[in-house]
Amino acid sequence: MFDQVTMKLNVEPLLLSALREDITSEDVSTNSVMPEPRLGEVDLICKQDGVLCGMEVFARVFTLLDESTRITTFAQDGEEIKAGQKLAVVRGDIRVLLSGERTALNYLQRMSGIATHTRAVASLLEGTGTKLLDTRKTTPNNRIFEKYAVRTGSGNNHRYNLSDGVMLKDNHIGAAGGVKEAVRRAREYAPFVRKIEVEVETLDMVREAVEAGADIIMLDNMSHEEMAQALTIIDGRAEVEVSGNVTRENIARLTDLGVDYISSGALTHSSPILDLSLKNLHPVE
Which residues contact 86 (CB under 8 A, 6 or more apart)? Predict the structure, then answer.
């Protein structure tokens, strides 16, 4: 769940922006069939097995439109849910239920889809001691939701944004003139509490990163044989991350390496939504 400060400062403005995108002047369809306020209820139904994520966000969409809206939940974030299961009942002004429906479901389906996908991938690393990480390959303005969904799905977050840590990728290294110089400049500039991670693509770069004193070395798009050799070179002198087109289908080939981290952009950029629906809307007295 998001704490109160995060919800107010970082989450609610994004939800309001999404609602404004969907309602630029009025909800013409709703106002046509429901010109006056009327109390109603609608059920949130799961249509596909998966992992639930985003209930707090789902609920807040409706209460931003009308604080008197009430949401009764029957499942929590992180819980495995089944097709046909009733997850919640939303009670309030029917106009609010209709106008908030799509925005609320968009967040809930997307977050639940990421949590479901992440849970499936993380299960493949159980017992290995290797942590599954996400990346910054997130949907613009949705990173806070998507990274929360990864955590809910038993994954771990890599750095949140560019201010969150030093990662020297190929273009940083090229700009600095080499691994050694890039690490030296980072040591001089970055606060001492920041770890320095270096992305490497060859065994020569691995040696340079070790000699330069990198804290974390990311082995990017290397063959299995090259990664095994890289681990011998590093020999425990830095933490090791593996990255590069890692998916649910191929992650098993990496489990024998014993690296500290495996990162996968696919957790956020390629997760399908989880099918959820608001059904059985009816007036209540």
Answer: 43, 44, 45, 46, 74
Q: Which residues does the annotation mark as catalytic?
A: 102, 137, 169, 199, 220
Structure tokens at 22: 């969907």
Q: Residue 154 to residues 148, 226, 255: CA-CA distances in angstroms?
A: 10, 29, 17
* Residue 43, helix vs strand vs coil: strand
CA-to-CA distance for 75 and 69, rounded, in angstroms? 18
Q: pTM higher than 0.90 for the full model?
A: yes
Residue 197: strand pairing partners: 167, 216
Q: What are the pLDDT tens digits along the chain (285 aa)?
A: 899 999 999 999 999 999 999 999 999 999 999 999 999 999 999 999 999 999 999 999 999 999 999 999 999 999 999 999 999 999 999 999 999 999 999 999 999 999 999 999 999 999 999 999 999 999 999 999 999 999 999 999 999 999 999 999 999 999 999 999 999 999 999 988 899 999 999 999 999 999 999 999 999 999 999 999 999 999 999 999 999 999 999 999 999 999 999 999 999 999 999 999 999 999 997
Separation of alpha carbons 160 and 181, rounded Å? 25
Could you give the 3-state DSSP secondary structure of residue 259? Answer: coil
* DSSP string for residues in 163-195: TS-EEE-HHHHHHHTSHHHHHHHHHHHS-TTS-
Q: Is 204 within 8 Å of 181 (Cβ atoms)?
A: no
| 278: CB partners within 8 A, 6+ apart | 42, 43, 44, 45, 90, 97, 101, 104, 105
